[in-house]
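Q: Hi! New to this. If I give you a protein sequence and the SMILES for nicotinamide-adenine-dinucleotide, can you show me the bound structure?
A: Yes, paste them in.
Q: Okay, here:
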Amino acid sequence: MSTQIKKVAVIGAGTMGAGIAGLCAAKGCEVVLLDMTRELADKGIEKLTLGKRPAVTDETAARIGRGSLQDDLSMIADSDWICEAVVEDLAIKRDLFSRLEAVRKDGSILSTNTSGIPLRDIYAQMPERMQQNIAVTHFFNPVHIMKLVELVPGSKTDNRVMTALTDFLNNTLEKGTVRAKDTVNFIGNRIGCYWMLAGLHKAADSGLSIESVDALMSKPVGLPPTGLYGLIDLIGLDVMDFVGKNLSKNLPDNDPGRSYLALPETEQHMLNNGQLGRKTGGGFYKMVKSADGEKSMQVFDLQQKDWRAIQKVELNDAQTDIEQLMYGSDGESQFAWNLMSNTLTYSSALVPEISDDIVNVDRAMKWGFNWAQGPFELLDAVNARKFAEKCQAEGTAIEGMLKVLMDSGNDTFYRNNGSEFLGLDGNYYPVTG
Ligand SMILES: NC(=O)c1ccc[n+]([C@@H]2O[C@H](COP(=O)([O-])OP(=O)(O)OC[C@H]3O[C@@H](n4cnc5c(N)ncnc54)[C@H](O)[C@@H]3O)[C@@H](O)[C@H]2O)c1
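A: Thanks. Here is the predicted structure of the protein with nicotinamide-adenine-dinucleotide bound:
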């Protein structure tokens, strides 16, 4: 029996739930959105219509049915897909799924938008029907803009469920799905959070200014213009601290990311002072207005622990070319090599633990973090063999896909203009999807 998703129920009208409901409604689905109260559902939808570039029009918003979990649970009874996006709390999610299971129709699909709770913990000891019908659909924020959705099956999830979700997410919602596994933080956040948390430590040790770090960790390596500190200002230091604490509970014991989970000393000082990022009016950067109304950007000097005027960074030609930057010898190159080589060897070692192939890893970083190239495309761009040899010369173990590359005698992760990728067995396979 195949499932076509036309009617959608979303539970939780916060940032993600309202975003998912709004997107589904904008794409023509019949949508209901439930939260603890009907007012919370209304509020979530109202937020979607505000701002300079609203996520949905007023007309679309008006088509979304709303209700409370207490009084209106029956509204989900004929939904084809029920997507849970409530607070990140295992007990709350499990209690909710038990209630949904009692009401939903046969053949409907359940999913959770959790970012970090193992799916197996959510469905443990639940009825067989639920175990066969549940998956993770991990959207990225803002839902209507970010392309990535990580799709994770449980150990008993039907193929029918995965096929229907893939088809719906790709074709109706026009997302890019990536097949991930039930491992901590899936693909995008596992690698992205490693890069951010390791980045804070390595940048602090490098002695480079915030402006220099962000100038290097953006266009030269194909990452978004926010760089490292600008991105963390956007996310919030409190969220980074929460991410680090969650990872400390769930990362495998021998994971190299464990060295970077606590914030560096200055960032901890900022966190303690409530200097969290854009949401508190400033984190590493802040906009100030002079008496005559002129606006200018200031930066928080990490050594002085005080604000100063931002300084423009002029990178030389070698520092803007990724290969020259990675293999250069100045302080900027040493920092870029230190952070990017660690991130790339980390990504390499995580296949097949987090993904069966490199294509899903590269897509996750491009579609979820706006990297111009994924880790394995970056390795090709800097000459993967030369990269591995430099790592080996430094005593860094080559694991996962870099080992496959070296052992199989190949030079690149992709060939024939990116139409074929290197598989776990050292052979090339067509890139599909
Ligand atoms: N914000 C992100 O960037 C992001 C990205 C991907 C995944 N996620 C995940 O999506 C889920 C929702 O996150 P969010 O950022 O939208 O959170 P949020 O805090 O914006 O919204 C959570 C919603 O859950 C509701 N809620 C709280 N307790 C509840 C209960 N007992 N029963 C039912 N509803 C309850 C709240 O009223 C609120 O509307 C979480 O699992 C989170 O980890 C978040």
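A: The longest strand covers residues 295-301. Let me know if you'd like me to explain how to read the tokens.
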